[in-house]
Amino acid sequence: MTVRATDYDAGLNGTVFYEIDSYGNPPASANGKLLFKINVNTGLIQTSLRNSLDREKTSQYFLPIVAKDRGDEQRKTTTTATISISDINDQRPQFIDVSSVNDNLVKMMQLFGLKSESCG
């Protein structure tokens, strides 16, 4: 994802750079490292930590961004980038407890007066 801001001033007053707004409570890992980074010149947002995002835990992140100009009396604006995490096939199938299924099936069959030698 890339954010972009425009400043129509001339020279350094119109040159924009980007930062993650540390006062805006950016998403971080358990050890405090930011989950995202931003290229100061292009506004390209990338993950900071390899394999750190899991849609089963968090499906969206809100990243506070600041765009500033390089003027002597620096001007800035802020926005929030909404980052939606796509699901990937990272979970394997799991068997349920077959013995409890058989036990429940036998109880249901007994409830309805049915008998089966193969269940239980």
Automatic annotation (TrEMBL):
Keywords of this entry: Calcium, Membrane, Repeat
Subcellular location: Membrane
Main location: membrane
Name of the protein described by the UniProt record: Cadherin domain-containing protein
GO molecular function: beta-catenin binding; cadherin binding; calcium ion binding
CDD domains (UniProt xref): Cadherin_repeat (cd11304)
Residues in Cadherin domain copies: 1-95
Name of a matching Pfam family: Cadherin
Superkingdom to which the source organism belongs: Eukaryota
GO CC, any one term: catenin complex
InterPro entries assigned to the protein according to its UniProt record, in alphabetical order: Cadherin, Cadherin-like_dom, Cadherin-like_sf
A biological-process GO annotation: cell migration
